[in-house]
Amino acid sequence: MNDASKYASRVAAVLNDLTIELPSWGFADTGTRFGKFGQDSAAIDFTDKLSDASHVNRLTGCCPKLAVHVLWDFSANQQPAEVKSQAEQHGLRIGSINPNLFQDQQYKYGSLCHPDAKIREHAVQHCIDSIKLGQAVDSRVVTLWLADGSNYPGQDNLRARKGRLQECLQTLHGHLSSEQSFLLEYKPFEPAFYHTDLADWGMSLALARAMGPQAKVLVDTGHHYQSQNIEQIVAWLLDEGMLGGFHFNDRRYADDDLTLASIDPYQIFRIFYEILSYAHDTGRTPTIEYMIDQSHNLKPKIEAMIQTVMTAQELVAKAAIVDFDLLADLQARQDIVGCERHLKQAFFTDVSGLVTAWRVEQGISPDPLTAHRESGYLEVIEKERRQRRQELGIVTGGSYA
Amino acid sequence: MNDASKYASRVAAVLNDLTIELPSWGFADTGTRFGKFGQDSAAIDFTDKLSDASHVNRLTGCCPKLAVHVLWDFSANQQPAEVKSQAEQHGLRIGSINPNLFQDQQYKYGSLCHPDAKIREHAVQHCIDSIKLGQAVDSRVVTLWLADGSNYPGQDNLRARKGRLQECLQTLHGHLSSEQSFLLEYKPFEPAFYHTDLADWGMSLALARAMGPQAKVLVDTGHHYQSQNIEQIVAWLLDEGMLGGFHFNDRRYADDDLTLASIDPYQIFRIFYEILSYAHDTGRTPTIEYMIDQSHNLKPKIEAMIQTVMTAQELVAKAAIVDFDLLADLQARQDIVGCERHLKQAFFTDVSGLVTAWRVEQGISPDPLTAHRESGYLEVIEKERRQRRQELGIVTGGSYA
Amino acid sequence: MNDASKYASRVAAVLNDLTIELPSWGFADTGTRFGKFGQDSAAIDFTDKLSDASHVNRLTGCCPKLAVHVLWDFSANQQPAEVKSQAEQHGLRIGSINPNLFQDQQYKYGSLCHPDAKIREHAVQHCIDSIKLGQAVDSRVVTLWLADGSNYPGQDNLRARKGRLQECLQTLHGHLSSEQSFLLEYKPFEPAFYHTDLADWGMSLALARAMGPQAKVLVDTGHHYQSQNIEQIVAWLLDEGMLGGFHFNDRRYADDDLTLASIDPYQIFRIFYEILSYAHDTGRTPTIEYMIDQSHNLKPKIEAMIQTVMTAQELVAKAAIVDFDLLADLQARQDIVGCERHLKQAFFTDVSGLVTAWRVEQGISPDPLTAHRESGYLEVIEKERRQRRQELGIVTGGSYA
Amino acid sequence: MNDASKYASRVAAVLNDLTIELPSWGFADTGTRFGKFGQDSAAIDFTDKLSDASHVNRLTGCCPKLAVHVLWDFSANQQPAEVKSQAEQHGLRIGSINPNLFQDQQYKYGSLCHPDAKIREHAVQHCIDSIKLGQAVDSRVVTLWLADGSNYPGQDNLRARKGRLQECLQTLHGHLSSEQSFLLEYKPFEPAFYHTDLADWGMSLALARAMGPQAKVLVDTGHHYQSQNIEQIVAWLLDEGMLGGFHFNDRRYADDDLTLASIDPYQIFRIFYEILSYAHDTGRTPTIEYMIDQSHNLKPKIEAMIQTVMTAQELVAKAAIVDFDLLADLQARQDIVGCERHLKQAFFTDVSGLVTAWRVEQGISPDPLTAHRESGYLEVIEKERRQRRQELGIVTGGSYA
Fold first, then answer.
1. In percent, how much of chain A has pLDDT > 90?
2. Are B106 and B122 in contact (CB under 8 A)?
3. D216 in a structural domain
4. Residue A266 contacts C where some CB pair is shorter than 8 Å
5. How does DSSP classify residue D394?
6. Which residue among D253, D266, D336 sits closest to B298, beta carbon to beta carbon?
7. How far apart are the first and last CA of chain A?
8. Per-residue pLDDT at B3
9. CB D369 to CB B337 under 8 A?
10. What is the pLDDT of residues A253-293, one digit of tens each?
11. CATH code, D171
12. Region label for C227, one of left (φ > 0), alpha (ψ between -120 and 50) or beta (otherwise)
């Protein structure tokens, strides 16, 4: 067995480097098309989201940024400066800005790919507004998930849509400040079922390159075909200098938005391993945005968020104790069983002591999840938000038909 | 090439036999978790649904029944007799009764499988009420899709849940009248993502058998693992005497609820072929409920319904012109290319003339879709429902977060 | 964190119970359709296989049985008594008997499902011979993987094939001695690509039930649709009293025959957890045959076998430290995060010390893999078999076309 | 319904343009890892393959080229000029040259990606030899399917392998004559199961671009993830100017190598539709190599080849009768049902008369498959090859273990 203790400094180093962005929408009630199960403690407004994110950041010590969805988090007459200062009061910064191009009724047949130039313009303008908003709140990252696609063969011209999309994206690149990067997500299906305009990493890569030097690819761990090798895609994007960041979650079937590593922890470990391996081999630390993108229909939202952060920390710590030089040597000799054994030994090594020690050093609780349960925070917000929800007449649920 | 004309009587016979039940929810606004795109013409209430279904039945001549979802279609104080008579006024009968066990807040962790006996009792009572309602409106079929499942390993005891489910189902069987049958659906995932309590046909078969003689299996064409051979499942269920019916739709990835045969028409043809082959080989015509279960987020709802019915008719007509004796002979000689050629020739034979002739004989339009577009029905309901929606203050859309 | 040491007795108990059968074919050269990569140390004949299996059993202390494939392991004029005694000389017993119905030229269109009654009779006779052979060598288990299927729609009558299969299997059941059980495997595809006659657990279950009381279902961990929940199938088969055994391996895409838990260790852990949970809840220890079915194209065969056994031991030990009562309590309260956390904590607990201690108590090496590498066994057989292969003129490789 | 007759000239035009390359290996005995089912008529040597291909070309009138696999078709001391002239005597030209990098024992851990530079050099040299051979026989296309990959996490460094591959491919590009193109295939898995070095179109595209201007991407219709939209990939590659050609076949699960359009004919139709749509919209006819890559384990090989060619002709003819302008108009109005109806009407239009008429005009049989069955060719080669096989002592079959 590995002597984990001798890896303490490596573990501390990767934990110091790992900041994870929280999603504002992860604190609100979300669900499936068959309905939402409401939680009293779910955030009602942006202030609630800031409060919850701040609580998670305090407990975990590594979540200083909150990703925002323009549509859900900002009102038209809200001043960006105000938002920024409100975040700062909660000890947070605004993280990635997410334009929203999938919900408006006008986007029924697409947004940036829509056959109608007027609707494309509208969508482009929304993205430009998002970019500007990002500049105003000192956010460095714009993240685009494009839901565009079609449901039936023949419904639209696939090549024409690609052309429209490329043109729109190039326009957007022109509006970025020199400090902003634009991350292009991909997803095989849902909400479109016959074709999705940005369906895989190859499509995002091609269009990110066509956009310009500040565009990169965003890997959502739940947005792949079944059995696709995600860590290989990560390795290729790193090698091509085009990996911009991650949306963390896990899945079994489709885009299930489950907690990171809840279904296949070994796979998430291997993703971290590829990133650390790249850093080891090249001596370069890539700039990667780590963002959580999960919607919890069943789990308590704050708990799930803390659990995700803790899980990511444990898995990156396990990846950090891989002995890359030893592994390279085993690989050179094609000692397959030896290679595999070394990698799995790292995965199964108990690093909880090292992670706990790091937390204590940071002045935070050795077990943030338990600390949360004991904090009383949940009880307070449950009571307050239940009552506010009643006063506002908000009913959660929704009906399929 | 086949001389399709000599198959006129066979085609007419299968078309005479094919009645397709329409889903009440298929006329209402539905969508994905990322929102609904509202249609002015979408049904607002049950009367609208009856009106739309009646229109489709008039145009197609083969949809005399409307499936209902207890939760969405009936109000507590509505008399079943009234519902039945209202349907009759539209020239319709009430088809399958669908209890709804997935939407209420109490079903967060399941309904018939829930760890809490109180909630199971509540769910059972809802199903009993549905069964009684079916008796009151002369419906012969209760159809259960069970959304129960869990999202995370360890969340609940899989075996215990199976036991609870079996017990509840056996209770329900005791409430069926001798004329009612109970169809048990299955689905691999969604809304549950780690495990679904009735995940595949084997599970539905085992529990239908455990329920009693009036329970059978319902095959939803969109509820299978990728690459699973649906027609083989149909053939097995027929052979076991356990095929109760179908929910018609198509899919590419998951439960996409697209129009029947829009993605893989050859597969739907093969399902019809298995059914006709069974009837040919055994001399028995199985009692099978054909029901549409589609939710159209993009397509006009009435058009999509008519298109589905027409597609089913064309495909069953193509299956009817297979020469089963000739094929059996080719199979006995294992002339694979010959077998395949014969089957595909039937699939590609132009049967539109035969189907059209049958429609004309029924006194209906040779092209129901065009007849619908020319009928003016859509314009009338669009105008009336748009206005009514405004008056009622109904806003379609919904927000993910 | 769990204090693993207090679980020492539970771990020892499950390790005492876990005997794993080795596959004779796992020591021979195997490959993909694109060729085999020969290993000097690969077994050439049955004596080699016995020798290798005996070596693995000596090192691991839990593999006293060798599964055999009638076609590859026995010559026509070999006396069963001789085989049995030869095995005993190696400290082994003959495990499951595997009839072989996929390789002969006559099985081109199937064996037990073949349209031609003569070929079905031939296949039945081969199975009867296998059953008798099993009786003669004191083997208790006959294991059938049926490769039958078709490649093209229409190639054969799916229902007729089911009927033929059922008839043949019922005949076979009549030849079992009262001590023999018959395990029916399933597999979605390969070598047949359009349909496979025993494609999923539901089909194996239906036909095992139709066979008679001594037939049960065999779960090969690599024979499932992508994203199918294997542990749920295991839980259902246990509950139905129909789980006969396992073929251990892992896969990423199809039936890849990789080392157990090499791709998704958490899943294999969950399978063990379901088995131990069943035993805990019911107080019954089910009779389950654990068999390895892997073919290593790249890994050294003996190493891979030892690695598999060690992996199974570690994972069952991890499953053994789950506190079932505590988990049941968390489940009753639907504390999802608590449930998940408890299960994963068991999975990640370092049990290597407990497993090592158990080995030392058994008088075997604490690290069988290292013991093997240091034993010199490989070098001896490599040299001897390389030379023998040359003398016999055996060339490994094979050509795709 | 479409009046197919008015489309006669369009159908004739696409049929004139469609030449399909036959694979030499498609006439030889191939199989699965579980064995090969020998056919008396299977080609034994290259002369047989030329004879069979020539027979197919005579009957179909559109297969003037034979793809060759360097390893299986050429002996070391054979003069390329001789091969070329032998082909010409059969009325054929040598089509694509396929280097073979997967079968030799030295390629156990890879070829162009192998950790050992010596083996990479050996593989590069084999490819250079193939390129030169292509020049010598006037073949314009080199086609590379790379089987390289790994079976276990950690087995090799994914990024390092990418680097090695890129370097080798760039070297190869330098050896191409100005008339040669190099087509890079991709495949998600098999024979490697954990990762494949060229796993998807995005990887092939990235490396084809890195190679140089004469490299393009080859789409094998069977080499995709389940549910992946192949026609979208085709549309993107066309738009990027990087579509080099196709390997035609069909599949249900994995790389099943079934007859084109035997499982999902609508999908293959949509691929042709994308190609013709590109030509219509841009006025450019792309240079696309259409090649069959099928291995028939069950079907008679020559029949299967003829059937494939006939199927491709029927489907491209159906695609040709799509009214692209009308469809564009329907798309602009987002008349989804109208779009879909138009596309499917083309798919279901009976074009057999038009295709037959074209054949008669070419002076070939209106039904090549029947013509083959009546030609007596099969009986002659069966007898001759059966005898020759006996004389040569060739036994087909092979054993899994």
1. 91
2. yes
3. yes
4. yes
5. -
6. D336
7. 56
8. 58
9. yes
10. 999 999 999 999 999 999 999 999 999 999 999 999 999 99
11. 3.20.20.150
12. left
pLDDT on residue C59: 98
Share of chain C above pLDDT 70, in %: 99
Which of C35, C299, C399 is facing D72, going by the closest CB pair?
C399
Please indicate if any CB of chain A lies within 8 Å of the CB of D199: yes
* Inter-chain touch B240–C155, beta carbons under 8 Å: no
pLDDT at residue D3 is higher than 70 = no
What is the reported pLDDT for D355?
A: 97
Neighbours of chain C (3+ CB pairs under 8 A): A, B, D
Asked if A313 is an interface residue toward chain C (Cβ–Cβ < 8 A), one would say no
DSSP secondary structure code for residue D138 in this structure: T
Which token pair is B235?
């053939």
CB pairs under 8 A between B and C: 153
Percent of chain D whose predicted confidence (pLDDT) is above 70: 99
How far is Cα B298 from Cα B183, in angstroms, rounded to an integer? 29
Whole-angstrom CA distances from A207 to A119, A180, A182, D252, D290 are 20, 17, 11, 31, 28
B150: which strand partners? B195
Contact across the interface for B227 and D253, Cβ inside 8 Å: yes
Domain count, chain D: 1
Per residue in A350-367, pLDDT (tens digit) is 999 999 999 999 999 999
Q: Is A348 on the interface with C (CB under 8 A)?
A: yes
Q: Is residue A225 part of a domain?
A: yes
* Residue B10 pLDDT > 90: yes
Q: Is the Cβ of B258 closer than 8 Å to some Cβ of chain A?
A: yes
Smallest CA–CA distance from D209 into chain A, residue: A206
Q: What is the pLDDT of residue C94?
A: 97
Using DSSP bridges, classify how beta strands C35-36 and C31-32 pair: parallel, antiparallel or unpaired.
antiparallel
In a domain, A132, yes or no: yes
Q: Please name every residue paired with C3 in a beta bridge, in sequence order, or none if there are none.
A: none
Domain that residue B109 falls in:
15-322+372-392
**Residue of C72, C108, C254 lying closest to D253 (CB–CB):** C254
A196: contact with B, CB 8 A cutoff = no
CB D120 within 8 A of CB D163: no
Helices (H) and strands (E) in chain A, counts: 15, 12
Give dist(CA B129, CA B125) in Å, integer. Answer: 6
Mean pLDDT to the nearest integer, B269-280:
98
Residue B331: its chain C contacts at CB < 8 A?
Answer: 115, 154-157
Per-residue pLDDT, A5: 64
Closest alpha carbon to C96 in C25, C165, C199: C25
> Tens digit of pLDDT for each residue in D352-377?
999 999 999 999 999 999 999 999 99
Contact D345, D5 (CB under 8 A): no
Mutate to test the interface with A, among C226, C267, C306, C336 (most CBs of A within 10 A): C336
pLDDT at D5 over 90: no
Q: Is the peptide bond before C191 cis (omega within 30 degrees of 0)?
A: yes
Q: What is the pTM of this model?
A: 0.98
State mean pLDDT over A54-59: 98
**pLDDT digits 0-9 by tens, B226-269:** 999 999 999 999 999 999 999 999 999 999 999 999 999 999 99
- For residue B275, the chain C residues in CB contact (below 8 A) are none
Mutating which of B227, B299, B352 best tests the D interface, going by the most D Cβ atoms within 10 A?
Answer: B227
Angle at B219 (CA atoms; ends B217, B220), nearest 5 degrees: 140
Write down the pLDDT at residue D297: 87
Distance of alpha carbon D120 from alpha carbon D111, whole angstroms: 5
Which of C109, C225, C331 has the CB atom closest to B227's CB atom? C225
Q: Which residues of D touch C71 (CB under 8 A)?
A: 399
Any domain includes D301: yes
Closest approach of B75 to chain D, Cα-based (Å): 34
Lowest mean pLDDT among A325-334, B47-56, C68-77: C68-77
- What was the pLDDT predicted at A401? 75
